Predict the structure.
Amino acid sequence: MQRPGWAVVIVAALLSALVTGVATTMVLSVDGPIAVPGSDAVDETADERVAAMKERVARLERDNADLRARRERPRVVAPPRGQPDGEGQSTPEQNAEWWSRNADQQQTGVPRTSGGFFISQAEFVAPQAKLLELLSGNSELRADLAEALEQGGDVAAAKLLEIVRDPEMSLAVRGCAVETVAAVAPAATFTVVDAVLRSPDAEAGVRAKALWSATAAAISGHGVPDSVRALAFDDSADAAERDTARSVMVHGAPDDMLPYVDQWAASTDPSDRQRAHSLTRGVRHKSYLPLLTRMVNDERYRGAANDLIGTIAQLKDRSWSPVQMTGEPDTPIGGDLGTAWASKSPQMGRVWIELTYAQAVTPSQIRIRETLAPGAVARIAVRDGTEWRTLWEGEAGAEAAPRWFAPRIESVDFTTHTVRLELDTDRADGWNEIDAVELIGVGGLRQWAQSARASTSYADSK
């Protein structure tokens, strides 16, 4: 579906504001921009601003719904032959659910502190409209705030902080003011968050809004307020607040938090492991990949495999791209999962994959981890100078996924660090997906691919 040009401009402006931290305030009416600072447009009333913001929220929500609808299309419409539904197998319903969750993450980009789900761009506009609406009984303050929001930056932040600190204001108004700071003046979020979290009189609802704003600031690259850092390691603090502060740390100061998350993930205490799992949902930093890979391959996290797989796939590259075959296996269950490579279409004849390893060895074995519809591998070759030498060719046979395919290969007297797989996709019932390929040398050196490329990829179809 082709969207109108103005929708693209709005979303681009909002994304730019989130990424760069530049406060961008654009109030729109049905017909276009109104009351843009520095223009000759006639200033509209606060009521009109509220209506314009609500319309903007509705448009953004429609855009998000449209994107989700276009992506919610499971590729596996039935379990592949020889793979009955059961433990470790993805059903079409499970796959559709994953697609829905994954689409939400890719199109909006700001994780909720509860993990796994993402804050939509509309939620950054909505607090402004809501706050002006809550102040409908105070026309003077409402008009002053509307003007400050229009100017944005320090002016907006100062006015919002004034509201947050006013004990005469209702809890709803002060909480909404805290949320609004993250939308219109992200650079000032620290000041507001610190003021709230360090105040002994701040209500739980306002503190929750402050932590929400701190999360948005962390995702936008502004780091972590000092008050949140202190709260994350305060054993006397409310447990829910402390966990949320730790989540902010994971996003805003990931390397500082990684040793703690690593320790909890390896703990024998189930509550520690649950904490590690919760904190790693939706993490956006590649420094967490080794930890996530260990977790997903740990039997104790088998129930969380789909969550971990979704996070790993996004950290590595686009789902089902050749890059998903690099490194050690990270798809411990069978199914249509983004941490494995898949071809663009299920049956498209002969295709190839090439994988490169760090050290050249004389190959003694090549092990292929197939995680969906095994049986398409038709040839295994390695590079010898400028030529490809066939080490195995034949029928791989179909079995239940996941499986290791490691046929006896021809002995050679040269070293190589490049492996080529050729697949006949017509042999597999559905997409044949490959998670990892291990190269084992004559001396016993075992390696996972450092880089990979392929003649086709499902990632290229999205």
Remarks:
- DSSP finds 15 helices and 13 strands in the chain.
